[in-house]
Automatic annotation (TrEMBL):
Keywords: Capsid protein, Virion
InterPro entries with a match to the protein in the record: CotJB_dom (IPR024207), Spore_coat_assembly_CotJB (IPR016571)
Protein name: Spore coat protein JB
Native organism: Brevibacillus centrosporus
Top-level division of the source organism's lineage: Bacteria
């Protein structure tokens, strides 16, 4: 999978989770939305793990696994990614 499309999928899932969280703040009893939020959370974890295995850490400050070697400098800057 291409770098930009892998990152794009992560961003899409994160965006959906933010929107669902905002919705659930106002509609906490919507069980369909709660189920969808849980499913997307699982997808996010899986997508993040797959991305990090292939490309390196997504987030800093302990939110991503630390590889045996430092790889932040090898990933493109956000403005260098073509979607």
């Amino acid at each position: 999978m291409e770098y930009g499309s892998t990152l794009r999928k992560l961003q899409e899932i994160q965006f959906a989770l933010v929107e669902l969280q905002l919705y659930l703040d106002m509609n906490p009893d919507d069980q369909r939305a709660v189920k969808q939020y849980k499913e997307l959370t699982v997808q996010l974890v899986q997508q993040k793990q797959a991305y990090e295995k292939e490309r390196g850490p997504v987030m800093q400050y302990g939110h991503s696994s630390t590889p045996d070697r430092w790889t932040w400098h090898k990933t493109p800057w956000p403005w260098e990614i073509e979607y």
